[in-house]
Amino acid sequence: MHKAVLSSDRVMLLLSLVPYLAEHGPTTVTELAAAFDVSPSLLRKLVTILGTAGVPGETLTYQDDDLFDINWDAFEHDDLVSLTKVVGVDDAPRFAPAETAALIAGLHALTGVLPGESAELARATAEKLGAALGDPERTAALTVTADREDARLPVAVSAIEEQRVLAFEYRDAAGHHTSRKVDPLELSQHGGSWYLRAWCHDRHAARTFRLGHMSELQLLEAVETTQGEDPHPPRDAVSHEDRHSFTLTASLPAQLLPSIQGFDPEVIQELPAQRVLVAVEAWHERAAIQLVQVAPGQIIVESPATACAAVRDWTARALAAYDA
To answer: Where in the numbering of this chain does the PafC HTH domain appear (predicted)?
Structure first.
């Protein structure tokens, strides 16, 4: 039993016939009907319409050169559909190589957070795009290899989808280890790393955790609510600095770079006296203080102004406590 085909579906089917035939070449009516899951009789009716379909030319009227055509003898005697003239299809807009590469990168980024069937579809689509990205012989100009999936990512996704408390061990940028329990809110990706936004039971506040610094993830009980209300503050109540990352720059001796690897620094400039300028993605100004604490007096926060102010305030408080 073939599926029922409405009038609107017949238009879409007719539009699909031309690229299919252009790719597969002469095809029998029976094979076409099986490919599109319609009856052979309906397929034959649609094929006869091809001779009156096309793209209006410069005169905006349908002349002979503006219409599709098929080998009518092969169609009538052998039930074979063979295009002899194609119009308009080759002029269809196509992705530029850079656009295709961007699509592949986006699909790779999504694969880790998609459920099984959708993730497989994303992988297959990325592979097809990679195969099409190249010369006319379809030699791949880009090797499509999925990164090894982080086993922590699907656990975090499940915690959000199932609204369950998530427990884990966490290592902060300074190397300190703590045990946390959180109510997960959302996942985001920035600078190639995944971040979990969550309500921390231990800090009684919203916090952002870097997935790469989390370990021993465990799904616990369902997130508790009181009389159907959300126990967390509305998202707008969270400070701007707590919700958005910013780039922090600092100068330091090049030899100290291994000591701040937990901050994932990016060297952006070499300075005199064997010093370097680095950029660090941070979620709050306290990160500037933690960075300076690695080597006080040797690491200097250069920007932004709010981070510099946070370091100055911390220094002033430390000196005041010392004088007391």
So the answer is: 9-130
pLDDT tens profile 253-271 = 999 988 887 777 889 999 9
Report whether pLDDT(125) > 60.
yes
Whether residue 87 is found in the same domain as residue 113: no
Tell me if 279 is assigned to some domain: yes
- Per-residue pLDDT tens for 213-236? 899 999 998 887 644 444 555 444
Same domain, yes or no: 208 and 262: no
Q: Is residue 184 part of a domain?
A: yes
pLDDT of residue 83: 76
User: In this structure, are residues 29 and 40 in contact, taking their beta carbons and an 8 Å threshold?
Assistant: yes
Count: domains in the chain: 4
Task: Give the CATH number for residue 86.
Answer: 1.10.10
Structure confidence at residue 250 as a pLDDT band (50, 70, 90):
very high
Contact in structure between 280 and 191 (CB atoms under 8 Å): no
Look up the domain containing 76 and give its range: 7-91
Asked if the structure places residue 2 within a domain, the reply is no
The three-state (H, E, C) secondary structure of the chain, written as one string: CCCCCCHHHHHHHHHHHHHHHHHHCCEEHHHHHHHHCCCHHHHHHHHHHHCCCECCCCCCCCCHHHECEECHHHHHHHCEECEEECCCHHHCCCCCHHHHHHHHHHHHHHHCCCCHHHHHHHHHHHHHHHHHCECCCCCECCCCCCCCCCCHHHHHHHHHHHCEEEEEEEECCCCCEEEEEEEEEEEEEECCEEEEEEEECCCCEEEEEEHHHEEEEEEEEECCCECCECCCCCHHHCCHHHHCCEEEEEEEEHHHHHHHHHHCCEEEEEECCCEEEEEEEECCCHHHHHHHHHCCCCCEEEECHHHHHHHHHHHHHHHHHHHC
